[in-house]
Amino acid sequence: MTAVFALATSLLWGLADFGGGLLSKRLRELTVVVVSQGAACLVLGAIVLGTGAWSELDARLLWCAVGAGAIGPVSMLCFYRALAIGPMGVVSPVATLGSVAVPVAVGMVLHGERPGLVQVAGTLVAVTGVVLAGGVGGGGAPVQQRTILLTVIAAFGFGATMSLVAEASTTVTGLFLTLFVQRVVNVIVGGGALCASVLRGTPALPGEGMRAVWTTLPALAFVGLADVAANGTYAVAAQSGPVTVAAVLASLYPVVTALAARGVLQERLRAMQTAGAGLALLGTVLLASG
Predict the structure, then answer these.
(1) 243-250 and 210-240 are packed helices; what angle lies between their axes, rounded to 10 degrees?
(2) The EamA domain covers which part of the protein (predicted)?
(3) Dist. CA 155–CA 159, nearest whole Å
(4) Which pLDDT tens digit goes with each residue over 160-169?
């Protein structure tokens, strides 16, 4: 059962990442963030009301959820932008690295945990993969430095968000309340940034206006809801079996994103970039399994 739900998490996260990146080629990244997270807010709000999760609210949960919500839009903005301008087969595995590496580092600093040999090896493998994925030393044009920078910022943001969510609550209902508060803050922060950019003269919508949002609304909603569903399936996987197994299998979602990019966009990577993306993913799995 753990493996089934963890693999479902990989599928949902992978498709959500691909959808967000694809939509960011047509809409502004901030618009994608605000609308997709707004859809997630509606569903999570219903879940919180239905489960009575409000009883879990305390100062620790609130502060951690608000912090995660403030970081989230920056991370997603950088991630969707990187997916829009760079190869998804490189961006997704590298971004995944931070969602594992940062929680490991937090565990070392706050909880006195010490990495094992497998995690040390995973770090070295992952760093090597990041360098190769950028196209360093290979023929042809490397991935733009801007894409790598955006991806690294997103990676650390995702890791910080996951750490804050993990620190917020230890129960499933508390998790859903944390995710709801986080998404509300996501929408507030992202919406504020979108309004500020509009006031500076940057249009929020492409040339076709609201029609572009309405025609892509089902896809935007899917991105937000798939992310919420992935959080739910991961919680079930972690509750029903070894957390290590759940973390490792759930961390395979960049494979789904890369396969979707290959099948839909006909995206092709150079051999060195493919090897680098694979090493980044392998390093992530080693970190999670250590």
Answers:
(1) 150
(2) 3-133, 147-287
(3) 6
(4) 887 788 778 7
